[in-house]
Amino acid sequence: MNEGENSGMPNGPIFSSPNISGGEPSKQEAVPMPEEQVDITKVADPAVATTIASMPDAPEKPIVTSGGDPVDKKKPRFGLGTRRFKEKSQQPAAPIMQAAQTPAFANAPEFFNDAVGDIVLADAADAEKKSKTKKLLVIGVVAAVAVIALLVVALTVIPSMKKAAAADDLQKSFRSFANLFLYNKQNDGPIEGTYDVKASPYAVKSSADLEYADKLKKSYNDFYSRYDKSEIKGKLSETMTEFNKYYSVIDTNLRYKDTSIIAIANYVLNSDIATAKNELMQKYERPTDMIPLSGVILSNYYDKALTDLDAYGIYKMHGCIDKSLPTPSAKCRNSITGEDGEKLAEYETIGLRAIEDNEKIVSDAQSFIKRKIFTIRDVLEGAK
C-alpha cells in the first residue's frame, strides 16, 4: 500500500456525536455509582441490625453534577429508611413524660422499646417524686423555723414581759405603803428622803388612827402578797421577816392604844363596871397566835384598860365622876386616901408602865421600818 493511499484513511474511528466539535475528543467525567442499599430486615443477626439502625448518617458529600439533577441529600443511605436524626440544637425541648412516649429505637423489637419506655417513665416519675419531696422539704423547713420562732417568743419574750410587769407592780405597791407610812400620803410615786426621815403619822394622836390603820394594813397586805410570789423574795427574806414583825407592832398599837378610853366611856355611859369589862373582853380578846411584840403591846393596853375601869369605880364611889363629869378632877383624886388611895396609886403605876413599855416597842419598830423602807426600795429598783 502506497503512502498516498494510506494517507487518505482516517487513523481512528469516526463518531458523529453532536457533542464532539472536532479536534481533540472531550474527556468524559466519571459518574458516581449509587451506593448499594442494605436492607436491615434481611440481616440475620439482630444485634448487627440494631447497631446499623442506630448508626448516625455519614457526612454529606458535595453535590457532583454532570449536567443532570443534583444528588438528593435526603436520599436514604444504606437502605435504612427515610428517618434522619436531627442535630441536638435543632430538636425542641420536650417534657420528660413526652420524651418517654417516643420509642428510643424505631427499628428495634417492640419488647425492647417497651422496656426502654418503662425505664424512661420510671426515671421521669422518680424525678417528679424527688421534685415534690424537695418542695415538701422546703415547706417543712420553713414551717419548722416559724414554729421555733414562735416558741422562742413564747419561752423568752412573753415571760420577760410578764416578769417586768410583775416587778413594776411590786415596786408600785411598795411605794404606796412606804409613802403612806412615812408621810401619810397615799401614792405610788418615788419615795423621797432617807432612813432618818422625821415625818411620821404617829405624832398625831386622834380617833383617826383606826381609819389610818385600815388603809395602811390594806396597802401593806397588797405589797406583801406580791412580794411573796416574786423572784426578789430570796434577796429580802431576812429583812422581810423582821419587817413583818415590826409592822405588826405598828398595826396593833394603832388599833388598841385607845382601848382604855373606849372601856371607860362604856363604863361612864352604863354606870356598870362589870358590863364595861365584859364588853372589853369580847372586843379586845387577847389572841394566842400573835407575834410576840404585838402580843406585848395588846397585853399592856388590855391591862391598863382593866385597871383604869377599877380606878373609875373608886372615883365614882367618892363622887368624882358622873355622866356630866366623865373625868375626875385633880382635887377629887387627891382627896381620896387610905386603902382606896393606895389602889388608885397602884392602878396608875400599872397604866404608866404599860404606856412606857408600849412606846418603847413602837419607837423601835418605827425606826426599823423607816430604815428598811429605803433598803427595800434600793433592792427593788436594782432588780428592774
Description:
The chain is an all-alpha fold. It has helices spanning 3-7, 46-54, 96-100, 110-183, 209-229, 237-256, 259-270, 273-283, 292-317, 330-335, 338-383. Helix 4 runs antiparallel to helix 11 (338-383), helix 7 (259-270) runs parallel beside helix 9 and helix 9 (292-317) runs antiparallel to helix 11 (338-383). The radius of gyration is 63 Å and the shape is rod-shaped. Mean pLDDT is 73; it is low at 1-26, 82-89, 94-100 and 202-206.
Layout of secondary structure:
Elements (H helix, E strand, L loop, with lengths): L2 H5 L38 H9 L41 H5 L9 H74 L25 H21 L7 H20 L2 H12 L2 H11 L8 H26 L12 H6 L2 H46 L1
Helix pairs in contact: 4-5, 4-11, 6-9, 6-11, 7-8, 7-9, 8-9, 9-11
Number of helices: 11
Classification by helices and strands: mainly alpha
Total strands: 0
- Overall mean pLDDT stands at 73
Give the end-to-end Cα distance, rounded to a whole number of Å.
149 Å
Short structural description:
The protein has helices at residues 3-7, 46-54, 96-100, 110-183, 209-229, 237-256, 259-270, 273-283, 292-317, 330-335, 338-383. The chain has 384 residues and is mainly alpha-helical.
